[in-house]
Amino acid sequence: MIDYRIVEPWPDVFLVLVPDDYDRAMLFLRAQTCYESPSARFRGRPFDLWDYVKYYTQEHGSFSYARDWRGFNLPYTAARDCYAALPQRYVTKYDRAFQRLLGDLGARVERPRRAYIVGADREGSRTAQHELYHARYFTDRAYRARANALLDALPAPLVAQLRRNLLALGYVDDDRILRDELQAFLQALNSRRFARGLDWRRVRTVGRQFREAMQAD
Question: Do residues 131 and 16 lie in contact, with contact meaning Cβ atoms separated by under 8 Å?
Answer without folding.
Answer: no
